[in-house]
Amino acid sequence: MKTLKIAIQKSGRLNEKSVELLKNCGLNFENYKSSLISPVSNFPLEILFLRDDDIPEYVQDGIADLGIVGENVIEETEVEVAYLQRLGFGKCSLKIAVPNNNDIATLADLNGKAIATTYPVILGKYLKEKGITSDIRTISGSVEISPGLGLSDAICDLVSTGGTLKSNGLKPFADVMSSEAVLIGSKGSENNDLIQELMQRIQSVLRAKETKYVVLNVKRDNLDAVIALLPGVKSPSVVPLAEADWVAVHTVIPERDFWDRISQLKQAGAQGIVVMPIEKIIL
Ligand SMILES: Nc1ncnc2c1ncn2[C@@H]1O[C@H](COP(=O)(O)OP(=O)(O)OP(=O)(O)O)[C@@H](O)[C@H]1O
Ligand SMILES: O=P(O)(O)OC[C@H]1O[C@H](OP(=O)(O)OP(=O)(O)O)[C@H](O)[C@@H]1O
Ligand SMILES: [Mg+2]
């Protein structure tokens, strides 16, 4: 059986979450700081640790079968790969930002201005679409300091909390794209059996992350009202308790509904509510 290769970021924003996801899929591998390639002992897979910019091309060329990388990097490298799964981490936006005190009020004011970025391809397409002609200055990092140094009038860079913009006297001006980490594969890789198995494991971990396992006690009289509030995977399990008119209800609740549902459940007569994380949900 052919051993698959998956490329993940060696160090940086996506490294830790990528390693955690693969470990949660039950894959055993060493993760030394010095590792560039690490075999998985219990699945025919090798993990390549790379600079994130190189991952899309490795996958496009089939050197790696799979990769975990930000959508922003895929768009910037303009590769032909299959998007297999959004992964829910590394969420950020690519934004144009301008100094707090400036005369740029509308997009048209960017005409003839210098914009520093590490994303010249994405920015170029965005400006073309908007009919703006700016001077795109490509630099490889620390973009936020360039207006202060007189290198540019604006920047285009990734933002999540906005803290880096703020501490450099900049404010967001326009949204260019939003991004998160995704699993990509070489074209046609969706049809490979091993890749499908790995994707099923990944999906079961992601599904579990979005939900909580809830156990609660309720008087039989209130059972219907409580069940009506529970959007379970299927119907909830109802288990008799030693006290004859009480039962325990076991179910799975989407995390996003969690707090709303908990207060409604208490109002409906639920007691002793225990909430537990779920490791995997296999459908
Ligand atoms: N502030 C942020 N919050 C959330 N996700 C982010 C943030 N900044 C970047 N990302 C996402 O994480 C990816 C990796 O970011 P990082 O800063 O580690 O890249 P890098 O410095 O280019 O790393 P490398 O050394 O691998 O080239 C980005 O391409 C983006 O998708
Ligand atoms: O809005 P914030 O939460 O402040 O995040 C934004 C910063 O995060 C990223 O850089 P990172 O910290 O990953 O460092 P790098 O530029 O050296 O890769 C990005 O390039 C911004 O500088
Ligand atoms: Mg990089």
From TrEMBL:
InterPro entries: ATP-PRT_HisG_long, ATP_PRibTrfase_cat, ATP_PRibTrfase_CS, ATP_PRibTrfase_HisG, HisG_C, N-reg_PII-like_a/b, N-reg_PII/ATP_PRibTrfase_C. Residues 51-203 form the ATP phosphoribosyltransferase catalytic domain. It catalyses: 1-(5-phospho-beta-D-ribosyl)-ATP + diphosphate = 5-phospho-alpha-D-ribose 1-diphosphate + ATP. The keyword Amino-acid biosynthesis applies. Keywords: Amino-acid biosynthesis, ATP-binding, Cytoplasm, Glycosyltransferase, Histidine biosynthesis, Magnesium, Metal-binding, Nucleotide-binding, Transferase. One of its GO terms (molecular function) is ATP phosphoribosyltransferase activity. Feedback inhibited by histidine. Gene3D superfamilies: 3.30.70.120, Periplasmic binding protein-like II. It holds the Pfam family HisG_C. It is found in: Cytoplasm. Its main location: cytoplasm. SUPFAM superfamilies: GlnB-like (SSF54913), Periplasmic binding protein-like II (SSF53850). Its cofactor is Mg(2+). The keyword Protein biosynthesis does not apply. Residues 208-280 form the Histidine biosynthesis HisG C-terminal domain. Belongs to the ATP phosphoribosyltransferase family. Long subfamily. This is ATP phosphoribosyltransferase. It comes from Mucilaginibacter pankratovii. The gene is hisG.
